[in-house]
Write a structure and sequence with these properties.
alpha+beta; Jelly Rolls; 14 strands; 30% helix; binds 2-oxoglutaric acid; binds fe (ii) ion; oxidoreductase
Length: 384
C-alpha cells in the first residue's frame, strides 16, 4: 500500500453542529491545506457532477479547430492546448501533458466568451454547475470564518459575493490524455500537471473513481550527494479519489484545497500545499485506482472580488499566529517581514497578476511593486 496522504474527510451537512464542522475544516486547512468534503449529494447533486463530466468529455473530443477558435485569452478564459501551461518551470522540460478549458462568468446562463459549437447547447447546464460550485464556496468561506473566529463571521463570504464585483473565479474542465507509447513518464521530462500551489482562495476538485494521479507534497528530505553536498528532495503522497469511509457514498468526496491568496491573507496560518498530477505508474498502490487511460477532472478556482484588500483579517487566531511567527523568527535571528506593513495593501487582482507574471515568466511586465510583493509572498510560501 502506497503511503497515501492522510487528509481528513469532513461532513458539512446542515444537520451537523456547524461550529464543530467549522473547527474540523480549519484544523485540516492549517495542518494539510487539503480536506475532503463528504459527498452526500446535497450541496452539489451527483447528477450535476455526472453531467459536467459528460459535457467535458464531449468538449475535449470536439474537432481541434473548434477548440482552437476558443484559445485561452489574457482574461484566463478559454482552451489551453496540450503542453501550453508549465506549472513547474524549474523542473519541467516540456509543458503539462493536459488540455484544459476555463469558463469565466455566465450572465443569465450565457457564457461571456467563445464556446465550441459542440457544447453550445450545454451552456445553461455549465452555468448551473458553476453556480453550484460558487454556492458551495460561499458556504465554505462562511465555515472558515466561523472556525477562525473572524469578526464578523461572514468577512470572507462578503468578499466573495458576486454582488461585490468581478473576480478571477474560474470553472476549469481538465483532460489528461493517456500517455503516448513513446512518452517518458519520469515526472521530470514529462508530467500531467507540474508541482504548483493554487492561486486563489479555495479550490474545489472533482475526480472520477479509478482515475488516480494527484499527489501532495508532504515535506522534504535532505539527501547527501557523494561529494558531500546536500539537496532537498520533495516527498510526495498520492491522494486517493475514494478515501476510506467514503466507498459507499453516492459519489467520491469533493476535494478542497487552500490557495495562495487565502494563505497570504491569513498570514500563512491556512496552508497552501504544493501538489501535482503524475502519470499512472502501473497503479499507485491504492486499491481500485489503476487506470492507465485518459483522466478527467474538474476544478473550481474561487477568488474574492478583484478589489478586495488583502489586509489584516479581523481574527484573534490569525493575529496570534502572525505574532507568534514573528517572535519565532526574531528568536532565530531571521528578518521579520510583515506583509501587512506594506505601504499599500495588495488587492486580490494584484495578487493574481503577480502569480501570472511568475507562471508565464514575463518579468518585463512586473513592476517594482510586483517584485516587492513577490518577496513578501515567498515568506508565506515557505511551507513550514
Ligand atoms: O487534475 C487534478 O487532479 C488537479 C489539477 C490541479 O491541481 C489544478 O488544475 O490546479
Ligand atoms: Fe492545483
Amino acid at each position: 500500500m502506497a503511503n497515501t496522504a492522510k487528509i481528513p474527510v469532513v461532513d458539512i451537512s446542515d444537520e451537523r453542529n456547524q461550529q464543530e464542522v467549522a473547527r474540523e475544516l480549519v484544523d485540516a486547512a492549517i495542518k494539510h491545506g487539503f480536506v475532503y468534503i463528504k459527498n452526500t449529494g446535497k450541496d452539489i447533486p451527483v447528477e450535476a457532477i455526472d453531467e459536467a463530466f459528460e459535457i467535458s468529455k464531449r468538449l475535449f473530443k470536439a474537432p481541434l479547430s473548434e477548440k482552437q477558435a476558443c484559445s485561452i485569452q489574457q482574461n484566463n478564459r478559454g482552451w489551453s492546448a496540450m503542453h501550453y501551461e508549465t506549472l513547474d518551470p524549474a523542473t519541467q522540460r516540456v509543458g503539462d501533458y493536459k488540455e484544459a478549458f476555463n469558463f469565466g462568468d455566465f450572465v443569465d446562463g450565457k457564457a461571456q466568451q467563445p464556446i465550441p459549437p459542440t457544447i453550445a447547447p450545454d451552456e445553461a447546464r455549465i452555468s448551473y454547475f458553476r453556480d453550484l460550485c460558487y454556492n458551495l464556496t460561499l458556504k465554505l468561506n462562511t465555515l472558515l470564518g466561523i472556525g477562525l473566529e473572524v469578526d464578523p463571521f461572514d468577512f470572507f463570504t462578503r468578499a466573495h459575493l458576486r454582488s461585490a464585483g468581478p473576480s478571477g473565479s474560474i470553472l476549469r474542465f481538465l483532460y489528461y490524455p493517456p500517455p503516448a507509447p513513446d512518452t517518458p513518464t519520469d515526472n521530470h521530462a514529462n508530467i500531467r500537471a507540474g508541482a504548483h500551489s493554487d492561486y486563489g482562495s479555495l479550490t474545489l476538485l472533482f475526480r472520477l473513481r479509478g482515475q488516480p494521479g494527484l499527489e501532495i507534497c508532504t515535506g522534504t528530505t535532505t539527501m547527501t550527494n557523494p561529494d558531500g553536498t546536500t539537496i532537498e528532495v520533495q516527498n510526495w503522497a498520492p491522494v486517493p479519489v475514494v478515501p476510506p469511509g467514503t466507498e459507499n457514498d453516492p459519489a467520491p468526496p469533493i476535494l478542497i484545497n487552500i490557495g495562495d491568496l487565502l494563505s497570504y491573507w491569513t498570514g500563512g496560518l491556512l496552508r497552501s500545499t504544493v501538489h501535482r498530477v503524475v502519470f499512472p505508474k502501473g497503479g499507485n498502490g491504492i486499491e481500485g485506482e489503476q487506470d492507465a487511460g485518459p483522466r478527467y477532472s474538474i476544478a473550481y478556482f474561487c477568488h474574492p472580488y478583484g478589489g478586495t484588500k488583502l489586509g489584516v483579517v479581523p481574527s484573534e487566531k490569525v493575529k496570534e499566529y502572525v505574532e507568534r511567527k514573528e517572535r519565532d523568527q526574531t528568536a532565530k535571528g531571521l528578518a521579520v517581514v510583515n506583509p501587512y506593513a506594506e505601504r499599500k495593501v495588495m488587492t486580490a487582482d494584484e495578487h493574481l497578476r503577480m502569480r501570472y507574471v511568475r507562471l508565464f515568466g514575463k518579468d518585463d511586465a512586473a513592476t517594482d511593486d510586483d517584485r516587492l510583493r513577490a518577496s513578501y509572498l515567498q515568506l508565506y510560501e515557505a511551507k513550514a
